[in-house]
Amino acid sequence: MRPLPNPLGSALLKADLRLRETDYSTAASLFYPAYLVFQPLSNWCLKRFGARIWLPLLVLLWGAVITGQAFVRTRVGTLISGPIALGLTSLDGRRIHGWHALFFVEGVITMIWSLVIALAVPNYPDNACILSESERQALAQTLNSEKPEAGRRKINTGRFVRCLFNPTMLLISLTLFCANIPLNTIMLFGPQVVKDMGFSSSQAQAMQALPGFFGLVGIVMASWYVKWFGSHFKSIVFTASAVVLGGIILLTTLNVVARMFALCLLGFGGFGMLGIGPGWLATNVASNVTLGGAASSVFLICGGMGGIVASNIYRNQDAPRYLLGHGINLMSGAVAIMLAALARYNMARINRRKTRNPMDISALSYDDIQCLEERHPDFRYIY
After folding, report:
1. Which regions span the lipid bilayer (predicted)?
2. Which CATH superfamily is domain 156-351+364-383 in?
3. What CA–CA distance (Å, rounded) separates 210 from 217?
């Protein structure tokens, strides 16, 4: 989810709502702290109410919020719900803008989709109607074997804290911080960057679809990178290199075609890293509810922090070159490569140490062995 359901509507929002120069960046920045605060609560509600209730409810509420944005008339109206009712009574054809229809249509579609989710999503694999009985049993057995303590072992504070400061987990999570900078550049500021190349607002809206399409290609292809390169590390380097190249082009040329190609590289690389990082992290978190949950939380927090940074690097006073924003995008790609290299080095070092000096666990109880997690002598990091 993003502050705007579609970046095509953002180019005209500022003028129509009479937003000040800093209002758009401020609104985008406020989205991420709220997202980080409510994400743990949402996870608790998911466990409490089940996926079949909680997920459709979230989608329904989000669709209602998007639909309500169609009736916002002023910059203050984006902060309170009262103008929604006023907008419903005052809406007329002469005052409808393109972004009004965009919000309304996407909001209604989202709410309708919530009904589909409510009918299709099961709470547990053994309730999945799309699977045969044998498939449900096989999936349930696989999940139980991967996380045998799920739902039975209480969260251990010490293990949770240990995961928060696990170097490998932190390094991989910080790659998402880097990925969210070019990703949010395309999502939040792409139309404005394109417009400042000399295009009209309508042209910028149309051309913004190109970097978004390359982002879609990047995240879809991410599932194949590890197979092609045989390594999560090499996959991160490949996608982050696209971000670096895009940043270099944006900083060094005013050629419109080259700059559009550079924005496509930002989308391809940023979304590509987003598609690789979660899988790399999940692969290297031992099958444990506590540490797996903590790792996921840190991963999302790092991503949210990247969104906050990206929301404030494209300033109006930097137009049309946006040297600060493009420079930070270049740095995000370079830093992602360095973080991935450090993560790979640390994983290889730990694997070698375990091979040379394996831990003797013959005297440990079953519970003590379960608590070893990534320290278990048979566990090996995958990079």
Report:
1. 24-41, 53-72, 99-121, 163-189, 209-226, 233-254, 260-282, 289-310, 322-343
2. MFS general substrate transporter like domains (1.20.1250.20)
3. 11
